Amino acid sequence: MGDAIRVAVLGGAGRMGQMLIRAVGESDRAHLTGVTERPGHAWIGRDLGEAMGGAARGVVVSADPLEVFAGADAVLDFTTPEATLENATLAAQARCVHVIGTTGMTEAQVAALAPAQRHAVQIRAGNMSLGVNLLTLLTKRVAAALDADFDIEIVEMHHRHKVDAPSGTALMLGEAAAAGRGVRLADAADRGRDGQTGARTRGDIGFAALRGGDVAGEHDVIFAADGERIVLRHVATDRMIFARGALKAALWGHGRPPGGYDMLDVLGLGG
């Protein structure tokens, strides 16, 4: 494997976990050294390849994240907010790159990740794709150029299995729009409309979440004024773009100084 880095996948049996495993397997710059699952899961103690219905791969699925972190240069984490907080502490102890694609985290949970950044590279993003991160930059720029006569609405659609709403990507886009407007998203967000809600509040950033089928991810940022609309859109047709982006982040982070980073840093678009 030469200079290939050692990568572990957390929550390997999940939809995203299996895609992360596939992305690492397709890379000549990384090799898989560990996979975790929650205690009691049917995969625990089994060879990963056999658990996935294929040939043995020499990696046993573990319920002990400490063991997995100790043997990795980077971990890919698309789990749950609670698990991610625990994983951040382990990543700091192991001094390994912690790539976080977990969505549904509260502001308090995101803030609680900060102490680990003093000891390890932590790369967190609501979406790991190049296109979405470019869309984030465009959203911020357009929001800064237009005043509150343009209402901002963010509409997202995902597959029927997604458990959080709005999506992490939608919230990332909302943060970009709020930054462009010079406001806090927490103060401007309108995340639910039902019944007699009254007229739209000027300056609000609205969200709508659609769920159905096998949609990988669609996001529209709509700037609507009297007589005209601007629509910025990203459509994902293959969820592997997120897995490949996460691996790209791990490769980029290996050898960098500890700290908190995002995908704009990985893509050279930060600052």
Automatic annotation (TrEMBL):
It catalyses: (S)-2,3,4,5-tetrahydrodipicolinate + NADP(+) + H2O = (2S,4S)-4-hydroxy-2,3,4,5-tetrahydrodipicolinate + NADPH + H(+); (S)-2,3,4,5-tetrahydrodipicolinate + NAD(+) + H2O = (2S,4S)-4-hydroxy-2,3,4,5-tetrahydrodipicolinate + NADH + H(+). GO terms for molecular function: 4-hydroxy-tetrahydrodipicolinate reductase; NAD binding; NADP binding; oxidoreductase activity, acting on CH or CH2 groups, NAD or NADP as acceptor. It is found in: Cytoplasm. CDD domains: DHDPR_N. Its EC number is 1.17.1.8. Keywords: Amino-acid biosynthesis, Cytoplasm, Diaminopimelate biosynthesis, Lysine biosynthesis, NAD, NADP, Oxidoreductase. Pathway: Amino-acid biosynthesis; L-lysine biosynthesis via DAP pathway; (S)-tetrahydrodipicolinate from L-aspartate: step 4/4. Its main location: cytoplasm. Residues 131-267 form the Dihydrodipicolinate reductase C-terminal domain. GO terms for biological process: diaminopimelate biosynthetic process; lysine biosynthetic process via diaminopimelate. (S)-2,3,4,5-tetrahydrodipicolinate binds at H159, G168, T169. It is an enzyme of class 1 (oxidoreductase). NADP(+) binds at R38. The active site is at H158, K162. Residues 5-128 form the Dihydrodipicolinate reductase N-terminal domain. NAD(+) binds at G11, G12, A13, G14, R15, M16, E37, G101, T102, T103, A125, G126, N127, M128. PANTHER family: 4-HYDROXY-TETRAHYDRODIPICOLINATE REDUCTASE 1, CHLOROPLASTIC-RELATED, DIHYDRODIPICOLINATE REDUCTASE. NCBIfam families: dapB. Catalyzes the conversion of 4-hydroxy-tetrahydrodipicolinate (HTPA) to tetrahydrodipicolinate. Belongs to the DapB family. Homotetramer. This is 4-hydroxy-tetrahydrodipicolinate reductase.
